[in-house]
């Protein structure tokens, strides 16, 4: 198949999933065309089946905000015609599904019928999409998609609760590529670079938005380091980073916390780690938790959204109510203090991650593409 993938080219979960999906599809012999405003951060163009097409948005004084959706839909039309694309796969309802629908309509006027698969990732539904300004457009775009998927059952339920959706939604969970040297034994780890021999390493990776409850992470670690010699690795950039740095200073633990910023070496950082913290207000799936588990790192997380579908309480880590810093701290300390229990949880985390291996998930997407191609347009 010739598949066009539209995504955000950033460090966020949806962009990472879309990129990894395209690369794996290319390995399977499909021709993949990424169409977005800049090259996705994890995209390697060494495979002859992988192509990247940049969306240029001309600047005109007439527009206060440049119309990306218009430029994207026009680019999709051109690429479908030029490369004879079989199916569009858009990640995020807005603006991508909306632009994809406009492209479908323009192509239909020329007798070209291109099916569209829309994958819902989370904030496109629960945050941005639920805003009154965007809600009608989101509902319309989803209902006009040929096939709709969501990354968790929780997100599917939220979508039906928040919108009037007439389409069936297929749950296809996010995935991890375990063969890509993500397993701990395949990565050369040098813990001494980050911590002393007797120190445990706790990690958090995110975009540092309020929904991630970054202050809770610092507070949990503050309690951990009272009981266990430890260092905290904070990976990512975002609006809450400066507040977190200030809180560390206030608590007097700034010398025990390392802020990395964005990194393309997530696997190397995780291979140092003993525990991963993800106390988010909500997560549609929890891809960061899965990446940690794939490196054999147990997870302390909230029980919100799709996280219980990924992190198995008392097995791969522990779940707590949102904001329950006391319980999360207690669970983390008890695990870090018990070496045998921690060792078992690390094994359990990797075993759980194997359920989401890309080789298990990929046939589900291929099936969806074939279904879309053979379905009738609305």
Describe this entry's structure for a reader:
The structure is a single chain. With 378 residues, this protein is of the alpha/beta class. It has 2 domains: 2-175 and 358-374, Glycogen Phosphorylase B (Rossmann fold, 3-Layer(aba) Sandwich), CATH 3.40.50.2000; 184-354, Glycogen Phosphorylase B (Rossmann fold, 3-Layer(aba) Sandwich). Helix content is 42%, strand content 16%. Helix 2 (68-83) crosses helix 3 (93-108) and helix 7 (214-227) crosses helix 12. The two termini are 22 Å apart. The mean pLDDT is 89.
Compute the average pLDDT.
89
According to CATH, what is the topology of the largest domain? Rossmann fold
Radius of gyration: 21 Å
- How many domains comprise the coordinates? 2
Distance between the termini: 22 Å
CATH superfamily of the largest domain: Glycogen Phosphorylase B
List keywords for this structure.
alpha/beta; Rossmann fold; seven-stranded parallel β-sheet; six-stranded parallel β-sheet; elongated
Summarize the structure.
By secondary structure, this protein is an alpha/beta fold. The protein has 14 helices and 13 strands.
Question: Topology of this protein?
Answer:
Blueprint (H helix, E strand, L loop, with lengths): L1 E5 L6 H15 L3 E6 L13 E5 L13 H16 L3 E5 L1 H16 L7 E5 L2 H4 L8 H9 L3 E4 L2 H10 L6 E3 L28 E6 L8 H14 L2 E6 L5 H11 L5 E5 L4 H7 L2 E4 L8 H8 L4 E4 L4 H4 L6 E4 L4 H13 L1 H16 L3 H17 L4
Parallel strand pairs: 1-2, 1-4, 2-3, 4-5, 5-6, 6-7, 8-9, 8-11, 9-10, 11-12, 12-13
């Amino acid at each position: 198949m010739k598949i066009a993938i539209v995504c955000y080219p950033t460090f966020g979960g949806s962009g990472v999933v879309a990129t990894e999906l395209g690369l794996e599809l290319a390995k399977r012999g499909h021709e993949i065309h990424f169409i977005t405003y800049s090259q996705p951060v994890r995209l390697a163009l060494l495979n002859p089946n992988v192509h990247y097409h940049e969306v240029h948005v001309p600047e005109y004084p007439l527009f206060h905000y440049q119309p990306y959706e218009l430029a994207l839909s026009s680019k999709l039309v051109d690429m479908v015609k030029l490369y004879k694309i079989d199916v569009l796969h858009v990640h995020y309802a807005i603006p991508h599904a909306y632009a994809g629908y406009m492209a479908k309509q323009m192509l239909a006027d020329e007798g070209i019928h291109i099916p569209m698969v829309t994958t819902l990732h989370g904030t496109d539904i629960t945050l941005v999409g639920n805003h009154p300004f965007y809600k009608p457009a989101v509902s319309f775009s989803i209902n006009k998609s040929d096939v709709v998927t969501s990354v968790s059952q929780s997100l599917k339920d939220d979508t039906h609760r928040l919108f009037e959706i007439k389409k069936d939604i297929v749950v296809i969970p996010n995935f991890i590529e375990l063969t890509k040297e993500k397993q701990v034994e395949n990565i050369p780890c040098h813990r001494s670079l980050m911590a002393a021999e007797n120190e445990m390493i706790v990690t958090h990776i995110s975009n540092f938005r309020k929904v991630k409850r970054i202050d809770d992470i610092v507070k949990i670690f503050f309690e951990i380091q009272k009981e266990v010699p430890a260092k905290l690795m904070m990976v990512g950039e975002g609006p809450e980073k400066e507040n977190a740095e200030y809180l560390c200073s206030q608590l007097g633990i700034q010398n025990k916390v390392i802020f990395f910023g964005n990194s393309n070496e997530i696997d190397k950082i995780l291979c140092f780690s003993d525990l991963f913290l993800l106390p988010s207000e909500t997560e549609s799936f929890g891809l960061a938790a899965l990446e940690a588990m794939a490196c054999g790192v147990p997870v302390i997380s909230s029980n919100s959204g799709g996280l219980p579908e990924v992190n198995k309480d008392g097995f791969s880590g522990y779940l707590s109510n949102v904001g329950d810093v006391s319980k999360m701290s207690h669970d983390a300390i008890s695990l870090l203090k018990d070496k045998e229990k921690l060792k078992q949880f690390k094994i359990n985390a990797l075993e759980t991650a194997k359920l989401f291996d890309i080789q298990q998930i990929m046939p589900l997407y291929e099936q969806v593409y074939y279904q879309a191609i053979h379905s009738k347009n609305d």
